[in-house]
Amino acid sequence: MGCLALVMACVFMCLWIRGTFYFERVVIPHRKTYSVFRSCNPVWPSCLGVTWAHHWNDPTAGPFKILSTKWETYPTYTEERIRELKLEHALEKSSPTWAAEENWEWEWHGFLVRTGRDYRILAVPYWSLVWPLTLLAAYLILWTPRKSYSPNQLVSTREEIRDSG
Q1: pLDDT of 135 over the 90 cut
Q2: What are the boundaries of each domain within the chain?
Q3: Which site in 55, 109, 141, 150 is 20 to 30 Å from 71, CA atoms measured?
Q4: Distant-in-sequence, close-in-space partners of 113: CB < 8 Å, separation ≥ 6
Q5: Rg of the chain in Å (alpha carbons)
């Protein structure tokens, strides 16, 4: 179990490092919805992690243009582009239509939950996956288990202690 936890921590660590250089996503269409899994989210640079977004069709927008599952990889945005995206996001949140469209957002140390009329986004930073898995692996691999005793051995040990005292 410890080796499995260590392998998982290493996989997430590799994705974490790769996420600093590449923006990757997998788009999975459904009948009236589609899901997106991302390896990083450049609009929220503190959220370098796994992002899941689920979008459903707005009847006024027409049908989706996404017909099949696809995997996309891009170089990450420059610092200048990230600043532009953050400014656009801040302006969007301050607009009167933000509240009118029932949008809501919560962000904390790289965790992100955002909902709107036709989408939901959940982001989990890589550090929250890598560190617990690494500590669990270290515990499982390095911790030496105590010697286990059968019930008969415990009874005989108690009798020996009573006889010696």
Answers
A1: yes
A2: 2-164
A3: 109
A4: 105, 106, 107, 121, 122, 123
A5: 25
Hey, what amino acid is at 115? Answer: T
pTM reported for the whole predicted model: 0.64
Report the amino acid identity of residue 58.
Answer: D
Dump pLDDT digits (tens) for 14-30. Answer: 888 887 777 787 888 87
Other CB atoms within 10 Å distance of the CB of residue 113: 13
HEC profile for the chain?
CHHHHHHHHHHHHHHHHHHCCEEEEEEEECCCEEEEEECCCCCCCCCCEEEEEEEECCCCCCCCCCCCCEEEEEECCCHHHHHHHHHHHHHHHHCHHHHHCCCEEEEECCEEEEECCCEEEEEEECHHHHHHHHHHHHHHHHCCCCCCCCHHHHHHHHHHHHHHC
> Contact, 22 vs 60, CB < 8 A?
no
How far apart (Å, rounded) are the C-alpha atoms in residues 125 and 121? 13
How far apart (Å, rounded) are the C-alpha atoms in residues 18 and 81? 19
What is d(CA 138, CA 118) in angstroms, rounded to the nearest whole number? 42
Q: Residue 57: how many CA atoms within 13 Å on its side-chain side?
A: 13
